Amino acid sequence: MECNDRVIAFILLIQLILSKKVPPKAVNLYLSGYLFMKTKYRFSAILIFQLVFILTLAEKGFAENLFTNERIIPGELSEVDKHKPDISMEVVSAPDDSGEQEANKELEDDFFDDDDDGGDEAIYDPIEPLNRLVWSFNDKLYDNVVEPVAREYGTVFPEPVRIMIRNFFSNLAEPIALVSSAAQNNKEKVDRSLGRFLINSTLGIGGLFDPAGKIFNIKKANEDFEQALAYHNVPTGAYIMLPIFGPTTTRGIVGKISQFFLTPEFVFGIDILTTTGARSGEMVNEISFNLGQKKELDSFALDSYTSVKDYYIQRRKALIKE
Amino acid sequence: MKIYHQLIKNIFTVLAIILLFFPELPSAQASEITEGVKKTLDSIIVIVSREDLKNNEKKAERRVLLREVISKKFSYYEMSRRSLTKHWKERTAEEKKEFIDLFGKLLENSYANKIESFTDEKIIYIDEKKKGNVALVKTIIQKNNDEIPVNYKLVKLDNDWKIYDFIVEGVSMIKNYRAQFKKIIHKSSYEELVNKLKKKLEKI
Domain-by-domain residue ranges, chain A? Predict the structure, then answer.
């Protein structure tokens, strides 16, 4: 086994250990992943590892420890194993009137109670003063640097080209959606992500075009690791405004870190300079599609920090639900 | 007996024929709400697409026309009440009136601003759900391959269905303002909120 592979296996083993509980199933999966690594099926090995990581992370003990001050009582492994979601990817049968239920729930949610002070969107924000500082930095950075750059970029590159670039990066993220959907027992989305990835990478010439969506009508499954964690009832944790990257939560950070192991920059060991260049390009490209939006938000929000925070939380909730 | 059976059979036959040819009969009522929303959105699009009102000088005129259409279908009272939640009860009648006026102007301008950038997107009416005197109309805005789900929440007031919230891509406008108002009142006071509203409106 090459040196690189050993390093990867080591890092992934650390991940498992960090999750504090390593149930038998996870160990078996890890071993099979290790064996895969010795062959050329490196990519699938990494997929397996990520699944294992998400599942072990989703166990209550770990989540509690990360987001509260409770101490983990080392429980019995067998008990833990019983609670683990079955990853055999069976179709979760939905009740026939699920649409009805959901819509009624939407109406009920708004069944206005005069004493309701909107507590559901109030997310834990322990470092609010710091967050506000970072937000004002981000705000100024966006208005003075990022937006003008994106605008200029938008004039230099015509829209079809920018769409191709967007498609390219979106395609690279399909494996993440695949693993995340698998961790959520959503067979339909797994199929969709797999289909889109294969078709767009081949027919769509390396992901530049979207024949999967246009010709075969396979809609994109908008999933990431944070949504998988949310599915397993991992609480959001604290709201954190990151410089440059924008709003996120503790859970979001954990999701992003584990997601990193499925990105091409990790899998193919791309150097940091190229990675930074490519990812900032992706960001600017994405912003070039939504130029006026921030200004709009600013004109009509009384407290832009809270508005952005609430918008972020509502948007994540909506993505998690679907 | 035979005549009785014959009569029943006849009635059923007639009913069956009616249902066969007029299957929309039961749902005719349910789509009334969607129709109301559609009418409003269509008139808004007409105003926004008018060539003679397109440039900046005509903005005031355009806004007046839009305000007419929007204020007929939006219930600023419900929006104000639901975004202030428990603080609404504590307000006096004049304060309530002032708030409805200010918040209404803000919302009007916010919505008008959004739709003025409307070019040739298509609006598809997906679904309608009703529960008591509250309803939900689901639409999708199609813009060159992007699909943006926009849902409208309506409440029945005086036999008329009025919009009290719109939800774009899962984000409810009223909830967003609720969070902001709650924060401002918590940090300073209601009066400060009113001040901020006034200052914001001056800038628009």
Answer: 3-88, 125-321
Using a CB–CB cutoff of 8 Å, tell me whether B38 touches chain A: no
What phi, psi does B119 have (nearest 5°)? -110, -85
Name the A residues in 222-251 with CB < 8 Å from any B CB. none
Interface contact flag, B176 A314, Cβ < 8 Å: yes
Name A109's bridge partners. Answer: none
Q: In sequence order, what DSSP letters do the residues of B145-193 get, joined into one string?
A: TEEEEEEEEEEEETTEEEEEEEEETTEEHHHHHHHHHHHHHHHS-HHHH
pLDDT at position A45, please? 65
Above 0.85 for ipTM, yes or no? no
pLDDT in tens, A95-152: 444 444 554 555 555 444 433 444 455 678 888 999 999 999 999 999 999 999 999 9
Residue A104 is nearest to which of B131, B180, B197, comparing CB atoms? B131
pTM, two decimals, is 0.73
Give the residue extent of every domain in chain B. Answer: 33-203
* CA-closest candidate to residue A321, choices B176, B170, B131, B135: B170
C-alpha–C-alpha distance, residues A217 and A276, integer Å: 33
- Cβ–Cβ gap A114/B89 under 8 Å: yes
| Distance of alpha carbon A313 from alpha carbon A126, whole angstroms | 16
Chains A, B: CB contacts within 8 A come to 102
Q: May I ask the CATH class of domain B33-203?
A: alpha beta
